[in-house]
């Protein structure tokens, strides 16, 4: 499974590195924007241009049955978020 994930990430990065077919001008703004936005979202880099994407908490909220001395549980979503943000 890790291979499929790595291959998908490499493909997404490869698509991001392909420049739009035409140079940006006033007459092709809509087409150019569609190509660029698709590449950014495909590479999962839209968090850099959309400030609404906030970082998840480092640790998960304690469960109701958790004891006082139990260590906090790391949030797996934070780890994947950090990897995506360090890709730049």
Characteristics:
88 residues, single chain, 45% helix
Write up this protein.
- With 88 residues, this protein is an all-alpha fold.
- It has one domain (2-62, 71-85).
- It contains three helices and no strands.
- Helix 1 (2-17) runs antiparallel to helix 2 (29-42).
- The mean pLDDT is 74.
| Secondary-structure element pattern, one letter each | HHH
State the domain count.
1
What is the global morphology? rod-shaped
Q: What does the average pLDDT come to?
A: 74
Largest sheet, in brief, is:
none
CA distance, first residue to last residue: 24 Å
* SS summary, helix count: 3
- The secondary structure category is mainly alpha
Strand content: under 5%
Uncertain residue ranges: none
Task: Please estimate the helix content.
Answer: 40-55%
Précis, in short:
45% of the residues lie in helices and 0% in strands. By secondary structure, it is mainly α.
Question: What is the element layout, followed by pairings?
Answer:
Elements lengths: L1 H16 L11 H14 L33 H10 L3
């Amino acid at each position: 499974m890790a291979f499929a994930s790595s291959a998908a990430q490499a493909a997404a990065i490869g698509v991001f590195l392909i420049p739009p077919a035409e140079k940006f001008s006033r007459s092709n703004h809509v087409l150019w924007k569609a190509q660029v936005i698709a590449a950014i979202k495909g590479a999962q880099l839209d968090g850099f241009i959309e400030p609404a994407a906030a970082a998840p908490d480092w640790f998960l909220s304690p469960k109701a049955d958790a004891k006082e001395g139990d260590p906090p549980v790391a949030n797996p979503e934070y780890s994947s978020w950090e990897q995506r943000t360090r890709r730049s």
